[in-house]
Amino acid sequence: MWTVLKLLLLLAVCPAQRGICTEMKEGKETHQAPGHVSVVIVGGTGDLAKKYLWQGFFQLYATQVGSGHTFSFYGGGLSPDAQATPILFNILKNVSCSSDTPVERCALLRDQFLHLAQYRQLKTLEDYKALGQHIQEQLQGEGMVEAGRLFYLSVPEFAYADIADKVNSSCRPASGAWLRVVLEKPFGHDLSSAQMLASKLWGFLKEEEMYRIDHYLGKQVVSNILPFRKVNQKFLEPIWNRHHIERVEIVLKETLDVKGRIPFYDRYGVIRDVLQNHLTEIMTLLTMKVPESLSSSQVVLHNKLQIFSLLQPVETKQAVVGQYQAYNAEVREELNKTSNQFSITPTFAAVMMHIDTPQYDGVPIILSSGKMLDERVSYARVLFKNDVFCVQNPHSIHCKPKQIIFHFGHGTLQRPAVLISKNLFKPELIDEEWRELTEHKDATVLGLPLSDFYAQAPKVEREAYAELIGHILSGRKDCFISAEYLLASWGLWTPLLDSLLSSYPRIYPGGEENGNLLDFHLKRNEIGYVSDDVVIINPEQMGGATAESFQVMQGKFRGDDMVSSWGEELLVRLAMDLEAAAEEAVSEGGAFHLALSGGSSPLALFRRLAEHHCAFPWRETHVWMVDERCMPLRESESNFHSLHEHLLQHIKIPYYNIHPMPVLLNQRLCVEEDGGALLYEKEIAHTVNNSAFHFVLLGMGIDGHTASLFPRDKAHEKHGESMVALTESPVKPHQRMSLTLKAINNAHRVGLLVMGKLKHELLTQVSRVKDLPNKWPVTGVHPVHGKLVWYLDYDALLG
Ligand SMILES: *[C@@H]1O[C@H](CO)[C@@H](O)[C@H](O)[C@H]1NC(C)=O
Ligand SMILES: *[C@@H]1O[C@H](CO)[C@@H](O)[C@H](O)[C@H]1NC(C)=O
Ligand SMILES: *[C@@H]1O[C@H](CO)[C@@H](O)[C@H](O)[C@H]1NC(C)=O
Ligand SMILES: *[C@@H]1O[C@H](CO)[C@@H](O)[C@H](O)[C@H]1NC(C)=O
User: InterPro entries attached here (predicted)?
Assistant: First the structure.
């Protein structure tokens, strides 16, 4: 039987831990009556316990020697005692002392720690009852006053409620002593599952008894963001606002993949795994109001929570997502999926947020994280505007970026530190636990030499879990996630996660090879990838791709070229291609003949052309119609009318270069003997070299029609050699005038723009079928000498 050894007072007390959560101020929350503490790690032989928890509790034990507290430690698990006891002791033998502990003292501490620990099977309610009884008997036997009981649940999320139930019913201490139950993320999967878990737990535990861990809050630089802001308030107050801050970046880059963790990771992805918790915590610490005093957990938690009510909702266009190339092969392997399974779980994401206050209005706050990137580093930086114009000596310090970098770890610096550009201000040290960083002179941080910064670093580096374990004992709830905060955070992220469900991530190769593929740019209210590259991946690398998604990767659709991306990006690309085609045609023959369709898809394209393409050679461009509804042009449903609204009236195009279709002749609409179609055909023949348009832009209807060529109209047979024809639509207005397949296929270049989820089903069908222009007129588009390019957005392509 193990017995509790009374602590030896001759062992000196270690220096108190510092940081926001650890200031041992007088106050209700931190004032602890000394007494006996029983620590139970449920899952005590698991990975986390092995790697961090026992080491953390040993450190706690070592620092608490002489404080008046006494301890006993229990490793709990599902296995029987005989089997698990040796495993537990192998782990416990591994704990190490801090480097400044004398060897003899360390040996003594470790020996005592081992004597205070035991394994207990914790499976049934009886097991928990027996534990509760054991603790009670021990307290009585040794005549000790109980301070509290700490249960650390290092088990999967689904087991929380059941264990909490058992702890509540059989392990509660007598009144006067505390109960603290520690939980590890994940805390739910979205807002409703987090709510469900929270209310289940509230049936067994009071909110004040729950300690939800985010180990980032135990990182020394993270826990000192507020103290740094506080001690440097006189410098920061005037510049911590939208007039001076250019943007805020919170970044966690990793080089590893997620092999071995796929069953967990594939259900979560990078946003749930990193952004919703760690990066959001840091975001609130950077932007919250700094309290008058940091010693009250309640005020700190309140100010943190306040940020959520000021954040603007995050829209889909404020996020970009990516997935490393080998991910799907790993999913297939670890989840035993068949080869047509295709996961779109993101392994990289960047999200832009805005806080809607006069202080931060318009300041982009970027949260970004990814697996398989070029380096392992995590930092947050506040980048300030620099209004200095350097005429000479661009390397002098006042020409450089002005920034504050909270460097959490790794990177080339390989250590936690806070860095302030020398052209900003000379900061105060956070407290006596921090020192100026004078070594690492050759290191660079975000591309700048360390000598550009005033840098400070903790004198002693501490492991996050050890820090947090200390905070549990001192009851500093501000180092943990409150239920309100958790639900507010899920409330912020859940709508974005839902909207990204159908979003196709950009595939990246991983490591250095990513090059600039994941770079993104910020606009006022959206972010997007900088490069338009479509990554081409072969089937072996893709592993799990289905036939359709494979065609995405190939950049081919129905044997023709395909460009595919997000809707907005797709239009950017199409507009660029149009401008390039225009320039080429004008330089070769002096004119550009462009035929445009009606419909809603191209309207955003027209606006983009009008607003962003100032160099487009409109003076040399002739605009033709692909099709027209038989109605007066001034009516808003006329294709020409919407073309005029969205494009023609905004550009400088000569009047005589505009060619509406003659649907109204002799005061009547589209009458065969008025010869409107023939008239248009002649106008084309007269103006366009060989009647070959340089660019014909088409769309596709959900019935497979293109231009105004409808299924079952047998249009292409009836039209023979005509270039323009009157056609019949199944929907009103029925009468149309349209270019024929003959005219379309005579063009130098045809672009087929297909956007939106509604088109997905047909697109999937069309991707597989042979040419059946009677059934799907769009399959009859094959330029004889020219080239067809499909412009497909991800909604249409992937549904
Ligand atoms: C003990 O530590 C060593 C070295 O750090 C490690 O290789 C070993 O796996 C650890 N053993 C246990 C049981 O944790
Ligand atoms: C704990 O269990 C008791 C019954 O043993 C119950 O009355 C109580 O509501 C439970 N929950 C909390 C938070 O104490
Ligand atoms: C996949 O199959 C292997 C071998 O049949 C099995 O051991 C493993 O548990 C399976 N994994 C999953 C997630 O079903
Ligand atoms: C007209 O087309 C022919 C052949 O298609 C070509 O040789 C000629 O250069 C073109 N003329 C102009 C003015 O583009």
Answer: 6-phosphogluconolactonase_DevB, G6P_DH, G6P_DH_AS, G6P_DH_C, G6P_DH_NAD-bd, Glc/Gal-6P_isomerase, NAD(P)-bd_dom_sf, NagB/RpiA_transferase-like
**Cα dihedral sign for 444, 445, 449, 451?**
negative
Beta strands in 101-177 (DSSP E): 117-121, 146-153
What is the whole-number distance in angstroms between the Cα of residue 135 and the centre of ligand 2?
Answer: 20
Residue 57's SS3 state is helix
Q: Is 516 in the pocket of ligand 4 (CB under 6 A)?
A: no
Q: Pick out the chain residues at pLDDT < 70.
A: 1-32, 340, 532-555, 714-717
Catalytic annotation present for 134: no
pTM score, two decimals? Answer: 0.67
**Domain covering 32-184 in this structure, CATH number:** 3.40.50.720
Q: Please name the amino acid found at residue 708.
A: S
What DSSP character marks residue 718? H
CATH code, residues 576-755+775-793: 3.40.50.1360
**Nearest bound ligand to the CA of residue 49:** 1
Same fold, 32-184 and 231-460+487-499: no
Ligand closest in space to the Cα of 200: 2
Q: How far apart are CA 477 and CA 474, in angstroms?
A: 9
Q: What is the SS3 assignment for 429? A: coil
CB of 313 shorter than 6 A to ligand 3: no
Q: What is the pLDDT of residue 549?
A: 37
pLDDT score for 337: 79
pLDDT of residue 346: 96
What pLDDT sits at residue 458? 96
Q: How far is the CA of 16 from the centre of ligand 3 (A)?
A: 48
Regarding the beta carbon of 260 and ligand 3, being less than 6 Å apart is answered no
Q: Give the fold, CATH level 3, of 231-460+487-499.
A: Dihydrodipicolinate Reductase; domain 2 (3.30.360)
Q: Ligand 1, atom 1: nearest CA belongs to which residue?
A: 94
Nearby residues of 95 by Cβ (< 8 Å), 6 or more positions away: 54, 55, 58, 110, 113
- Rounded Cα distance between 114 and 56, Å, is 14
Buried residues in 344-363 as b, exposed as e (16+ CB within 10 A): bbbbbbbbbbbbeeeebeeb
Judge whether 57 and 470 are in contact, CB under 8 Å.
no
- Give the sign of the dihedral formed by CA 684, CA 688, CA 691, CA 697: negative
Evaluate: CB of 91 within 6 angstroms of ligand 1: yes
pLDDT, tens digit, 9 for 90 and up, residues 69-111 = 999 999 999 999 999 999 999 999 999 998 888 999 999 999 9
